[in-house]
Amino acid sequence: MSEAEVLRAIFSVAFLASVLRVTTPILLPALGGLISELAGVINIALEGIMLTAAFVGVVVSAYTQSPWLGLAAALLASALLALGLAFFHLELKADLILSGLALNLLASGGTVFALYSLTGDKGTSAALASRAMPALNLPFLEGVPILGPILNQHNVMVYIAFLMVGVIGLLLYRTRWGIHVRAVGANPEVAASVGLNVRALRYQALVLSGVLAGLGGVYMSMGYLQLFQRDMIAGRGFIALAAVFMGGRRPLGTMLAALLFGAADALANQLGALQIPPQWVQMIPYTATVSALAIYALSQQRVTTRHRPLMFPRTQTRKR
After folding, report:
1. pTM, whole model, 2 decimals?
2. Sign (positive/negative) of CA torsion 302, 308, 314, 317?
3. 316 is a domain residue
4. What are 185-235's pLDDT values in tens digits?
5. Which domain holds residue 104?
6. Is residue 102 part of a domain?
C-alpha cells in the first residue's frame, strides 16, 4: 500500500468508525477507573480484570455456545477479582497499588496456565470455538450520509460503552449514591462523621469499577476479536487510568481522552501497512499516552503556580 493510499484511508469514514471500535476497550475500564478514583480507591488492577474477563468469556461461551452466558460469567469473574482487591485493601490493610499489581501478574500468568490446561496451547484459544457478541444495525442511520457509516453496524459493546458515559454521569452527579461516593473520596473522615459507611461505599465503587473493566475485556475477546490471546489487553487498562486523569476526572472528559488514545491506536493500525519498522508503529499509542500526560501535568503545574499565594504578600499603605 502506497503512502497516498494510507493517507486517504486515515482521512476516511472507515477510519473514524474504526476509532470508535478501538476506543471501546479503553473507555469502558476508564469509566470504571473514574468511579473508583472518585471514591478514593484507584483500581490499578483494571488490566488484570480485563484479561481475566476476556479469558472467561471465551471459555464459557465456547462450552455453552452462548455469548450471553459468556458475558455473564466474565462479569462475575470481574466482580470477584475487584471484590478481592477491595478485601485485601479495606480489610487486610494491604497497599492498594501493590495489591492491584499483584492481581495483574496473577491474571497474566493464570490465564496462560488455564488456557494450557484446557487446550494445550499457551498462545491463543484457536481450539475453542468462541461465540461473538452481536452487531447492531440501526435502521434510522442507514440513509444518513457520513454519520451513518461511522455510527452504524458496530458491535453491541461499542454502543454500551458510549451509552455508559451518560449513565455514569447521571449516577455520579444526579444520585444520592454518587454524591456519597464523591464525598468519601474527597474526605473520608468528614464523610464518616456525618454517618456515611466509607468502607461499604468503597467496596461498591471497586466492584462496579471491576464490572466495567470486565465489559471492556469481553469486548476484546468476543467483539473486537473472537478468540483469546496471551496478554491481549496490551496495556489498555493502564491507558484507561491515564484517560481518567487526562479527562479531569469527569465522565465526558474521560470519554474525550479515551477517544484521543483510541485515535492514536487506530492510526498505528493504519500505518502498519507502510514500510515502517513495526516497533515504531506499535509505540504510537503509548507515546501518545505519555505525551498527553506530560502536557496535562505541565498545564496543571502552571495553573497551580498561577494561583499560589505569595510567601510575603505586599501590604498596601493607606493614604492619610
Report:
1. 0.86
2. positive
3. no
4. 999 999 999 999 999 999 999 999 999 999 999 999 998 888 899 989 988
5. 3-306
6. yes
